[in-house]
Task: structure prediction
Amino acid sequence: MRIFSIAVWRSGMFAVALICATGGTVAAQWLSLPLAGTPRTPDGKPNLSAPAPRTADGKPDLSGIWRIDNPRPNEDLLSDGNSAPMLPSAAALYKHRVGTLGYERPGTFCMPHGVPDAVTVPSLPFKILQMPGVTVVLYEEFHMYRQIHTDGRQLPVETDDPAWYGYSVGRWDGDTFVVETAGFKEGSWLDNHGHPHTDALRMTERFRRINFGRMELAVTIDDPKAYSRPWTADTMRFELQPDTELLEHLCENNRDLGSLQQYWQGRDQAAPPTTGK
Amino acid sequence: MAHHSFAAEFDATQPIKLTGTVTKVEWTNPHTWFFMDVKNEDGSATNWGFEMPGPGQLLRAGMKRDSMKAGDVVTVDARRARDGGNRANAQTVVLTSTGQRLFGAQAR
Result:
């Protein structure tokens, strides 16, 4: 977790250049500023190939602002030629979603991407804050957050209060941060093409920070009501976004909703029932 | 990148290029929208609406809140709405007075 300090601001040559470039005004708050704790090359640029930082307890520190390195995972968790082992109910729902160009995709109504795909939005980064007892993910998209508890608590076996992002606990397996999530409610899509999930979903995410500038994530989907066996998405790769901050992204002007609903009018008749119900 | 289904609203096979005078800019999330009057042959004007990414993505690409203002004349390359309405998804926006490209869809 980095906190902006006046001392760092005044000592950084980058800061001086920034002030000159902007005439002392800030066009977008903290769009570009030198952040403390960033390793730098002799010319002052962030050294993205420096080793991954570590916390006081010696674990890799995943903290930072990250963005997916390509748009594909947001569209489909699997690359061309690979298909998820969908049960018939899930396959019917998926086919309908693809055939209607995304009928009732949650984003239409400004509902956020869920787990895992909230980290795959190509244009909107996310920020990890790794702290003792909890790791927090701040998603720029729609100003959302998620907590991954690392204080030793156990996942609920059953919950009467299922959640969009589910309930998450994390642990370290060597240098890999392993996150288990359960207690999902139906609603979110696993990707924009519409791979579905049910409330039986359990997800395992394995985060690995390669170096200062790179992070990878492997996601395994285990949902016996929608898939015949657990399956693993293509490994996602993220690039650190240095010397910047998240920006506000609230859904204040959803002009698309009306025209999308008009497009789908009459096309929703063949909508299959939600999976698992 | 749209937060919603791009393909259900806009048609990538229907490119359109228009020049007109900006009447309003909505610098808002999840999408920036701007509107411009396009002159018809009979002298009347048709108001078009153009969708762009939200302010965060535009700021990171170098555009600013005041880069485009009401009264500016711009040329827009866009993908037209499927329903044929006077709306489109902007791919590039060029300011006529200076030739400056205010916005160009990112390569990825």
Notes: Confidence is low (pLDDT under 50) at residues 1-24 of chain A. The longest strand of chain A covers residues 214-222. The helical segments of chain A are 6-11, 13-22, 72-75, 88-99, 256-264. Chain A touches chain B at residues 27-28, 31, 70-71, 74, 100-103, 105, 107-108, 110, 121-124, 140-142, 192, 244, 247-257, 259-260, 262-264 (CB under 8 Å).
